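Journal club prep — side note

Before the paper discussion, L.F. wants everyone to see what a predicted structure for a comparable chain looks like in token form. Sequence:
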Amino acid sequence: MVGMDFCHIIKKSVLEKRGTPMEINIRGTYKIKEGYYYNSNELLSFKDKSRHIEITIDPDGARAIAYKKIQVTEDIFQCLHLGVNEILENKLIEEIIQQCDEEFIASIENVLALIKYCFNQLVVDDDLNYLGSFAWFKDGEWKFIPSSGEIYVRLVEGVLINPKNSIFIQNYLDSGYKPFIALKHLHRAKREKDPRFKWIDATISAELAVKEFLIKMNPDIKLLLLELPSPPLYKLYGPILEQYAGEPSPKVKQIQKGIEIRNKLIHKPEDADISLDKASEYVHDIEIAIYHLLQLLYPEDLVVNLMYKSSLK
């Protein structure tokens, strides 16, 4: 049974209110809108070991399911055997479901973020609506617990995920790996249709990426980078990057020019007239620069190497 190997104790305050703890299996089901990122007929499965949660994604990429074991009081256990009205009226069950929902959401969101940014799945709705449908395991089958909702997500482009390469996402989960925050701005720039905002977001992603890179390379300089005025961006990608990583960015000149245009767009927008094609080309240059940083930081990561090579095309 999926998820049966995981055990988690719900808030002690809940259990102490009434009765002796009893263990049950609980499941949360969430819809994913337009899951274009998936190209296999097999179920994807991931384990969030930090939360003791197992997550599966259906072959059509349209549904994510989270499983775990929890402990409840005997009173709550007995209430779950009753009708819908009794369950809905039980405030402790509502509190338990709410906590499980929060943890399921965090785990699923983490998996989707890793798929999005590590496999370069471009289009994901950042404003997700989370409310799962819940069930608990009884007499060999799952019994519905009143509650409903959806996660609305749309994923396209990038690396198509399947059971073979999903091991990379599991490895990221196990290691606690977090994608660069800069990638969120890069994806937003790639989706933006207004050249002005496209250019600005791309520059923000470049600024964040090089700082995130340098801090990971040398945590001792974090305070200097975050609290003091930073050197010009082209210097961070040029001589400073070469000092710390052995080589400058292949897009130093484009970044230097990009900063000049970004400044005009912010301070003198009437003097900056850029086309969508020109902005898209700049976004592509920044994408190459960011994946170059990631390749320097994770030279053995096959996904990062694939993303960098793909960005050069």
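L.F.'s comment for the group: Confidence is low (pLDDT under 50) at residues 1-18, 148-156. Keep this in mind when we get to the figures.
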